[in-house]
Each structure stands twice: as structure tokens, then as C-alpha cells.
């Protein structure tokens, strides 16, 4: 069975419940990063179609927000059930365009579906407040209302989860949405759109517009109808969108780059630290925004940690995500491979000791790499690597670890391994990050508030805080009682 035969497969854009196909040769090709083969062609839309999608989302808003929350919740729950039913097909489409091992893709589909379930549940808990008023003849009511028409721009590293994490709270809150998926991975988003329709999401409530990023982005940002943007991607594009949002004063959620430190103290459970390191570094071939970028390891356990990580890295299996047993798939594109290669060369030039890997394999595959004795000013320590490269920096004291960890413009995720409860609390408190994994590397879950500070952005996704991003407060003062 080819990908095109899978049930939720779509190659068109979705505007107002109409699927728009690409004119052959005029669209954007989608490639399998494992072998470079073209697997689809999706429409390359621009400002004109984006304006149509905005108009459709605006027209659909009144009906959708007026629906009882329980009805919106039921539709999201049906969508959730359809994602589970089609988990295997969705995982195959995801691996086909993104490259991650199938086992990880299956996991991502479950994780992504979890946002639909969570926000379906939250939809019915959007309640208000009654505040004691200054006079006895008054009552103060606080209502929560949907912000209105919203937009989402998503990246290629989690083609399913980054979509549901935005669309689920939006729809639960009573908002409508226009999504621009990443050009590398539009197919998972389109498949989700097909399942949304099947679940009963009405026309215009969820629109998907693939194509020219700058043109679609500007049309969304210039429109006074669009009241909010949720963006996950790079910090430079996030900064630009922030500026573009100023004239219409849109609300923003920005989930941008990270530079996650992974601190191993000499009192840590080393088995747990090594397990956490493998997961935190090599998941999705190192291409997640919460992936470890810098290992900071205390003197006394440094050599042992490096040895154990080397042994585990030797067991990783590089290959196409569809091959059984593969744990490291291809990187997303040539630019990504070149960046990892540059970071390796830079670290070695500055005195880093290459312990494993260090070279590109064939195509877009890169050998899982370990470099010890990395100086703190190396590129890997400053700049998001987004690849299967672990660089180890040695430190001596707790103060030094905190200083090194915070010495970055980013502030998304940090990881700390220690068995000393006092140190655990001190260091978690001192880290300038939105999220801390304490003796734990798996921090992403729909039930917790995911997000960063500083150059890693603003706003939170997941948990009850995630739906607040799509709600406005309205205060009603009743007088003359
Ligand atoms: P990456 O370099 O990892 O692809 P980007 O920030 O460039 O990260 O991409 C994340 C998302 O932002 C993608 O959907 C991409 O198409 C989109 N994007 C890139 N440039 C712009 C832009 N000028 N306006 C709006 N969206 C953009």
C-alpha cells in the first residue's frame, strides 16, 4: 500500500471545507528525507487564498462560538478517536515526509491526539467569576470569551503535535483557525484536516493553507480580523512576526528556539542520567526544541558519564524511519546536516575531543556524535544544533553550573540530575527557563504548560493555561440592583 492509498491522505489545501488541489508542476513538492524521493505535491498558495481562508474563518466564527461547549467537546473527542483509529496511517504519512523512526511517529500521533482529548475536556470548564462589588446595588461578572479568528504557523519537527496543540485549544475555546503548516511537512496536517471534517468540524472552522510562507504570513498578520497568532519555529521568524503583529495588536503565543542545558551533578543517579541523556538528546535525531543542546557534567562523574554515553550511542541504529529497529532517521534537509557538521568542526577546532561519530553518513543521515571537553564558548554551547550531536562541558561547582546554564539568550527547557533535594530545589529555582526536567527528560505532555521565556518566546501550550491563550476576559458591571 502506498502512502497515497491511506485513508486520511490529502494533497489539497482546505479552505471552507473545499479541498483545493495543486495544478501539476505549480505546487510545492514534498520529499521523503530518507531518500529524497518526491512523495506529493501540495498547492502553493499565497495572499489571495489566505484572505479567502480568513473570510471563511470569520463567517464560521459566530456559529461555532455559539455552540454549547459540550457540542464542541464532542466533536473534538470524535476527532481524537479518529486519530487513534488511524494512528498507523498517520504515523506512516508523518515518517514519509519527516523521516523520524516509525515508533516515534506512532508516539507522536498519540501525543498529538492527547491535545484533542485534553482540550475537549477543558472546553466544558471555561467558566467565569462573580466578584464582590464596591456597592450593594452592584454585581460584577467576569465572562470568558473566545478571542475570535486565530492563526497558527507550525514547524516540521512535530508535524502532528504542533498542529493539535494549537488547533485543539482554539476550537475548544470557540475560536476558528487558519493553519499554515511547514512546507516540508504539510501532509500530516492535511490528513488531520481530513479527520477533522469527518469528526464534524464545520466548514470554515479549521482551514489549512500551505504555500508561500512570507505571503501567507503577511496576509495573516496584516488582517485586523485575525486576533491571535500561535507560532512555533525559529527565533528570527518569531521576532519578525512579533513586529508584524504590532499594527493590529494581535495576541501572540511564540514557541521559539532553545539551548537546553542538561546538568549532571556528581551525586546523580548515573543510570537515570544516561537514560535521560539518550532520550533528551537523540529523540527525533536531535531535532526538537527541547532537545539537549549542552551537557554540563560535574568533574567527578565526567569521564564515567562520557564512557557510558559512548557505549549507548554505539547501539543507535541509523537508517530510514520505516526500517524496523532504526532509532535515528535522516535530518530534515541539507541545511540541517551542514549545521551539525559546522558545529562538530567548530567544537573540535576549539579543543573538543571527538569520542564517537563526527561525520555525515549518506544522504541526509548524520552519525550520532559525542564530543567531550567542549569549551563553553563553542558554537554547540551557544547556538541550537538540532541534530544528533552531544557536546559535553565539564564544570566544578553548583554556582558554575547555574551560571553556564543561564548564559544564553534562550530559556525554554533545562534538565537537572541530582539526588540532593536541596540542590534540586535551589538549581530548579535559579534556572532561567520555562521548563525544568528534574531527574526526567520526558517533559512534554498535554497536561502541563509548555513554553519558554527570554528569546524562547511567550505563552504556554497544554494544561488549563493553554486554553487561556485563546480566551479574553469580559467584565460586566451590573448596577441599579
Ligand atoms: P525552520 O528554520 O526550523 O524551518 P522557521 O522558523 O523558518 O524554522 O519555520 C517555522 C515555520 O515558520 C514554517 O511553517 C515556516 O514556513 C514559517 N515561516 C518561515 N518564514 C516565515 C515568514 N516570513 N512568515 C511567516 N511564516 C514563516
Describe the secondary structure blueprint for this structure.
Blueprint (H helix, E strand, L loop, with lengths): L12 E3 L2 E3 L7 E4 L6 E5 L4 H20 L2 H17 L1 H12 L3 H22 L5 E3 L7 E8 L2 E5 L7 H13 L2 E5 L5 H14 L6 E3 L4 H10 L3 E7 L2 H11 L5 E5 L4 E5 L5 H13 L9 E7 H15 L20 H16 L3 E4 L12 E4 L6 H4 L6 E7 L2 H9 L3 E2 L1 E5 L3 H10 L4 E4 L14 E2 L2 E2 L4 H6 L2 E8 L3
Parallel strand pairs: 7-8, 7-10, 8-9, 10-11, 12-13, 12-18, 13-16, 15-16, 18-19
Antiparallel strand pairs: 1-2, 3-4, 5-6, 6-22, 11-21, 14-15, 17-20
Helix pairs in contact: 1-7, 2-4, 2-5, 2-6, 3-4, 3-6, 4-5, 9-10
The structure holds adenosine-5'-diphosphate (ADP).
The site of adenosine-5'-diphosphate (ADP) has 13 residues, from helix 7 and helix 8.
EC number: 1.2.1.-
Keywords: Oxidoreductase
GO molecular function: succinate-semialdehyde dehydrogenase (NAD+) activity
The CATH class of the largest domain: Alpha Beta
Strand order of the largest sheet: 14-15-16-13-12-18-19
How many individual β-strands?
22
End-to-end span in angstroms?
69 Å
> In terms of per-residue confidence, which ranges show pLDDT below 50 for 5 or more consecutive residues?
none
Bound molecules: adenosine-5'-diphosphate
Strand portion: 15-25%
Largest sheet, in brief, is:
7 strands, mixed
CATH topology of the largest domain: Aldehyde Dehydrogenase, Chain A, domain 1
Number of distinct helices = 15
Shape: globular
Going by CATH, the architecture of the largest domain would be: 3-Layer(aba) Sandwich
What is the C-alpha radius of gyration, as a whole number of Å?
A: 23 Å
Query: What structural category do the secondary elements indicate?
Result: alpha/beta
Number of domains: 2
Oligomeric state of the chains present here:
single chain
Q: Level of helix content?
A: 25-40%
Q: Provide the residue-averaged pLDDT.
A: 97
GO biological process, one term: gamma-aminobutyric acid catabolic process
InterPro entries: Ald_DH/histidinol_DH, Ald_DH_C, Ald_DH_CS_CYS, Ald_DH_CS_GLU, Ald_DH_N, Aldehyde_DH_dom, Aldehyde_DH_Superfamily, Succ_semiAld_DH
EC number: 1.2.1.-
Family: Belongs to the aldehyde dehydrogenase family.
Amino acid at each position: 500500500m502506498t502512502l497515497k492509498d491511506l485513508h486520511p491522505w490529502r494533497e489539497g489545501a482546505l479552505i471552507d471545507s473545499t479541498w483545493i488541489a495543486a495544478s501539476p508542476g505549480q505546487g510545492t513538492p514534498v520529499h521523503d528525507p530518507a531518500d529524497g524521493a518526491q512523495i506529493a505535491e501540495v498547492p502553493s498558495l499565497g495572499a489571495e487564498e489566505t484572505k479567502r481562508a480568513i473570510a471563511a474563518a470569520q463567517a464560521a466564527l459566530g456559529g461555532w462560538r455559539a455552540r454549547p461547549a459540550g457540542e464542541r467537546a464532542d466533536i473534538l473527542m470524535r476527532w481524537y478517536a479518529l486519530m487513534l483509529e488511524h494512528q498507523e496511517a498517520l504515523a506512516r504519512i508523518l515518517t514519509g515526509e519527516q523521516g523520524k523512526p516509525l515508533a516515534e511517529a506512532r508516539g507522536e500521533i498519540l501525543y498529538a491526539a492527547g491535545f484533542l482529548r485534553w482540550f475537549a475536556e477543558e472546553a466544558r470548564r471555561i467558566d467565569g467569576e462573580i466578584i464582590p462589588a464596591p456597592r450593594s446595588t452592584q454585581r460584577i461578572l467576569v465572562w470568558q470569551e473566545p478571542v475570535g479568528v486565530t492563526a497558527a504557523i507550525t514547524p516540521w519537527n512535530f508535524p502532528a503535535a504542533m498542529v493539535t496543540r494549537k488547533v485543539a485549544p482554539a476550537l475548544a475555546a470557540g475560536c476558528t483557525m487558519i493553519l499554515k503548516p511547514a512546507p516540508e511537512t504539510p501532509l500530516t496536517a492535511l490528513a488531520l484536516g481530513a479527520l477533522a471534517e469527518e469528526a464534524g468540524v464545520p466548514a470554515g472552522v479549521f482551514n489549512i493553507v500551505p504555500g508561500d510562507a512570507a505571503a501567507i504570513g503577511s496576509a495573516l498578520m496584516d488582517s485586523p480580523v485575525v486576533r491571535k497568532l500561535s507560532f512555533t519555529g525559529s527565533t528570527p521568524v518569531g521576532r519578525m512576526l512579533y513586529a508584524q503583529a504590532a499594527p493590529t495588536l494581535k495576541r501572540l503565543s511564540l514557541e521559539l528556539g532553545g539551548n537546553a542545558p542538561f546538568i549532571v551533578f556528581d551525586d546523580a543517579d548515573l543510570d537515570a542520567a544516561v537514560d535521560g541523556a539518550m532520550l533528551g538528546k537523540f529523540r527525533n535525531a536531535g531535532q526538537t526544541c527541547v532537545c539537549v543542546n549542552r551537557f554540563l557534567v560535574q568533574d567527578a562523574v565526567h569521564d564515567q558519564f562520557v564512557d557510558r554515553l559512548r557505549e549507548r550511542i554505539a547501539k543507535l541504529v541509523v537508517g530510514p524511519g520505516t526500517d524496523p529497529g532504526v532509532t535515528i532517521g535522516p535530518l530534515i534537509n541539507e541545511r540541517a546536516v551542514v549545521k551539525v557538521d559546522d558545529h562538530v568542526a567548530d567544537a573540535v577546532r576549539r579543543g573538543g575531543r571527538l569520542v564517537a561519530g563526527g561525520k555525515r553518513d549518506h544522504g541526509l543521515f548524520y552519525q550520532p556524535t559525542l564530543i567531550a571537553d567542549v569549551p563553553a564558548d563553542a558554537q554547540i554551547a551557544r547556538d541550537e544544533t538540532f541534530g544528533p550531536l552531544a557536546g559535553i562541558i565539564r564544570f566544578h561547582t553548583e554556582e558554575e553550573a547555574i551560571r553556564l546554564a543561564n548564559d544564553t539568550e534562550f530559556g525554554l527547557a533545562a534538565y537537572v540530575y541530582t539526588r540532593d533535594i536541596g540542590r534540586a530545589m535551589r538549581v530548579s529555582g535559579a534556572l532561567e527557563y520555562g521548563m525544568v526536567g528534574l531527574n526526567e527528560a520526558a517533559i512534554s505532555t498535554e497536561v502541563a504548560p509548555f513554553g519558554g521565556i527570554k528569546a524562547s518566546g511567550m505563552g504556554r501550550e497544554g494544561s488549563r493555561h493553554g486554553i487561556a491563550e485563546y480566551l479574553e476576559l469580559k467584565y460586566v458591571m451590573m448596577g441599579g440592583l
